[in-house]
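Q: I'm writing up a methods section and want to include an example of the input and output format. Could you take the sequence below and give the corresponding predicted structure tokens, formatted cleanly so I can copy it straight into the document?
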Amino acid sequence: MIAEHITIYLGIILCLFSSSYLIYSGQRWAGTVLLFGFLFNAQGVLYMQFIGHPEGTGSCWATVQDYYSCLPLTAKISMHLGQVSMLFIATGIFLFAKSKIGVVRDS
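A: Here is the clean output for your methods example:
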């Protein structure tokens, strides 16, 4: 269990440092988009780790029969930011690759 937490936190830290390095090295758009993507992804992981699943949704589930509508607003926001994070990460990787392909073509 401890090894799992170490790898999760180390992965989050390395992603944030790598995107910050991209910003520092001149790849501002790619680094900024990647930074937002990694932050959105990390908040989803940390939200579930520290806040977790809401308690007391049993009565809501019994009447509504829909797990999503029984979630608190913060859980819904966290879940959707985690989903959007993949779009930011993919766009950041595309921007970084596009800049590198342009450099290779020019030389």
